[in-house]
Amino acid sequence: MTFYARSQTLHCGFVKGPAGSPSTGFDLEEKDKIFMNKCMIVVSSCIFGSSDFLRRPTSKLMSEYSKKNVCFVMFVDQPTLSTLASEGNAPDDNGKIGLWRVVVVKNLPYEDMRRTGKVPKFLSHRLFPSSRYSIWLDSKLRLNTDPMLIIEYFLWRTRSEYAISNHYVRHCVWEEVLQNKRLNKYYHKAIDEQFMFYQSDGLIKFDATDPNTPLPSYVPEGSFIVRAHTPMSNLFSCLWFNEVDRFTSRDQLSFAYTYLKLKRQNPDRPFRLNMFKDCERRALVKLFHHREFPSPPNAP
């Protein structure tokens, strides 16, 4: 995978080898793959390791057009499906709970449930190969706004291909590193190795006073992402996924590095990213607490 935006086949995430070859993980049933291949507009989320309750999109706020034309897909593992069923949230005969089409993932690629969740978060263009637009929603959020209004407001109106909100408190990766270590979000040695590599490869501190700063913040609130599946959007998503695959699963640490390097190496190929205010995100969704927080992986 290269940061240079040129004609190439983007291989990122997981691959399907020839018949008889071993799986690389994130296995889906054939009926689900057939359904997902037909989706043109997607709202997706995931719950792995029974880490959350299922939050149904507010149906009465969704247009009939969206109910008919937007795929609402919730990825779960088998333990989560069993937990949901025990709580009275079993899928119906069409595999749905409310608007959510529940898709069971087998052979999870990582022991770290947070890292496994990055597959549907960043690789929607691979999971839904026919889709033109996607909205990612963290499982702690309930969608209270029609998806087509979201796409119109954050992408079409601003002529953007990727939209994500700034963090509500922190704007510099240096601050985010300290906060992750303070709260023991990941073992410190891995955070330090990642951060040192990024600094050696050109990452600089965020400076709000610099008129040439390309973004209003270098730390996103990554629970809500709106995407057009354009070549530059797909490339950025693949590159960002690669960072959480090779370093820590804390994607707020790798966002700025990925964006700035992509921009630096492609001065003649604009990537139209819309970083909007976090208050706009909070106006679209209802925030809940996680059922439980997955523990960070053990140090190697």
Automatic annotation (TrEMBL):
The protein's name in its UniProt record: TOD1/MUCI70 glycosyltransferase-like domain-containing protein
Lineage top rank: taxon: Eukaryota
Residue ranges annotated for the TOD1/MUCI70 glycosyltransferase-like domain, each copy included: 3-290
